[in-house]
Amino acid sequence: MWRVGTVVALRDETATARTITFEVQDWPGHLAGQHVDVRLTSPDGYSAVRSYSIAAAPNAERRVEITVERLPDGEVSPYLTQQVAVGDRLELRGPLGGWFVWRPEQTEPIQLVAGGSGIVPLMAMIRSHRSTDGAGALRLLYSVREPGAVYYRAELEAPAGEVSAPKVTYAFTRAAPKGWPGRIGRIDAALVASTTWPSKLVPTCYVCGPTSFVESAAGLLVAAGNSPGRIRTERFGPTGERQ
Amino acid sequence: MSEDHSLDGNAAAGPLSMIFAVDVTAAECQCARCGAISHFARARLYMLGPGVVARCAGCEHVLLRLVRAGQRLLLEARGLAYLSLDTSQLQESGS
């Protein structure tokens, strides 16, 4: 069933990514990690559907936020990131997916691993954890091309001492900020060993990103001693324009 | 092997919500060929064609196909031995 979402706010996250906030009249509520399908229909009846992870924590205001990365050859993302205006009404289907989710009743340590725009559903988990005073502490390992491509930067740099703030480690794959003490490159075994929860604490791991990133990161988590059954993954495809 | 274009079963939640009242991507399922038991969300999913094809992550056997042809929606699932749902965690399937 398709619902109508009214755009109530727009916010640029980077030069190429925009967050769209919808208010959805009869939204039944969602869990952190779920996604929505967005359907655009042209006047001649042609329609295109894309999936986007929800970035917002569950809330009582029936608000659904997605962050869309503009793909140069995309069919849908240029429209969503450049044309959509406050007050526009779009068709949404969701909330979708009951497996790649974090629930407030989870008390174990949580390891989040994001590749690029794979941060979006993990941000919903961070926000949900914060708004519910989640018990298990969060760690985030965020692989991103360069500093300018980081989503939600100010929010991730939460004030030191905030109890529920996740411990964030960046892996810059092409360019790092000036004075960056670490190396530049992809997530590797050493980084996983030194920055993620020790496997003996039995964390639940959530890995989201492009397929090749997810395969590699999940493999490193298993090599570090985590059970495959504790690792939940979500992949983006080459056609999906999936966030 | 060429570049892997597969997604995972999570991405089938929207299309499957056209048929199922609850989310089945969170269900455990068994592959009818190799017997592997896994969450449907872990299946390999191909969405490049005219529909959705889910394959067992272990043996690549086709678990399920969902195709839309005009006004007709066709679900073929002979590769799935069963689906098992945790009723304490059921989610509406986006409906």
Short description:
Chain A is of the alpha/beta class. Chain A has helices spanning 77-82, 119-131, 153-156, 189-195, 211-223; strands at 3-12, 17-24, 35-41, 47-53, 63-69, 89-96, 110-115, 138-144, 167-172, 204-210, 231-236.
Describe it.
Chain A has 243 residues and is α/β, with parallel strands linked by helices. Chain A contains five helices and eleven strands. Helix content of chain A is 18%, strand content 33%. Chain A is globular, with a radius of gyration of 18 Å. Chain A has a six-stranded antiparallel β-sheet. Chain A has helices at residues 77-82, 119-131, 153-156, 189-195, 211-223; strands spanning 3-12, 17-24, 35-41, 47-53, 63-69, 89-96, 110-115, 138-144, 167-172, 204-210, 231-236. Chain A folds into two domains: 3-96, Translation factors (Elongation Factor Tu (Ef-tu), domain 3), CATH 2.40.30.10; 110-236, Rossmann fold. By secondary structure, chain B is mainly beta. Chain B has one domain (7-88). Chain B is built from one helix and eight strands, in the order βαβββββββ. In chain B, strands 1-4-5-6-7 form a five-stranded antiparallel β-sheet, with no helix packed on it. In chain B, strand 2 (28-31) and strand 3 form a beta hairpin. The termini of chain B are far apart.
How many E strands of chain A? Answer: 11
State the helical fraction of chain A: 10-25%
**Strand line-up in the sheet with most strands of chain B:** 1-4-5-6-7
Strand arrangement in the largest pleated sheet of chain A: 4-3-6-1-2-5
Termini separation of chain A: 21 Å
Rg of chain A computed from alpha carbons, rounded to a whole number of angstroms: 18 Å
Contiguous low-pLDDT stretches of chain B (5 residues minimum) are: none
Shape of chain A: globular
- What's the count of strands of chain B? 8
Helix/strand order of chain B: EHEEEEEEE
Q: Shape of chain B, please?
A: globular
For the largest beta-sheet of chain B, the strand count, sense and barrel status come to: 5 strands, antiparallel
CATH homologous superfamily designation of the largest domain in chain A: Nucleotide-binding domain of ferredoxin-NADP reductase (FNR) module
* Assembly state (oligomeric): heterodimer
Q: How many domain units of chain B?
A: 1
Overall SS class of chain B: mainly beta
* Biggest sheet overview of chain A: 6 strands, antiparallel
Helix content, binned percent of chain B: under 10%
